Amino acid sequence: MYNNTLGIHQVVHLHQIGGHASFDMPVSTALDPSVQPSDNTSHSVEMFVPMNIPQYNRDGSSTVMFQVNTKRNSLSIPLDECLQPGGGPRLKDAQEVMFPTVDRTQVQTFKFVIACQWPGYDTVEYPIDIGTNEVPITRADLARQIAYHFFGFYIQCDNGHLTQRSHLQWKVGGRDGYSFHQIHLSTFWNIEGTSWGASVRVLENV
To answer: Is 85 in contact with 143 (CB distance < 8 Å)?
Structure first.
């Protein structure tokens, strides 16, 4: 599933997001480039998903932001756009190198923790391949890997493999839960050591 640089080497297609059957195969880099995600934000508001993970790096020095380059004061970008080649055409500073001070001969993967971040679900962890010193990960590559893992999380919730114990208003998948298209990526931040979390927003219709 992972190579020595960017890791994910297969494709997420629109039919997998909209009408998937399973999530048994590796997925990655691109949606159908001929289909652009719809922008339904004119009648929606973004809400932060509350998190229960402590952030030890309070000064924000270990935080990566994800923004739309065509919007002033953008606070997030849709996850489905991040699955497109290059993180999608609207990702701001897509080719900026991430974690420039990390020696990748010593550390090549971070641990990405989704839950307890997502209210009511058990902890789920995924690897993030940060590349090599010669070919380090970019913001677009990072966004793509995070989106890929969130898609896997969504599929498990939608199929009933992951179920909520509480906070049912934050349900993911199913008829009455949030869809993958409603989830937006805001930041990627260091919890402690090589453990990282992602702040996400969800679209609510108004």
So the answer is: no
Asked whether residue 55 carries a pLDDT value surpassing 60, the answer given is no
Mean pLDDT of the chain: 76
Say yes or no to pLDDT of 154 above 90.
yes
In contact, 77 and 68? CB cutoff 8 Å: yes
Q: Is 180 left (phi over 0), alpha (psi -120 to 50) or beta?
A: alpha
Residue with tokens 């990627």: 188
Beta bridge partners of 10: none
pLDDT the model gives residue 94? 95
CA distance 14 to 114: 23
β-strand partners of 199: 187
Q: How far apart are CA 148 and CA 1, in angstroms?
A: 12
Across 35-55, b (16+ Cβ under 10 Å) vs e yields eebeeeeeeeeeeebebebee
Position 21 scores a pLDDT of 38
Can you give the pLDDT at residue 87? Answer: 86
Beta-bridge partners for 187: 65, 199
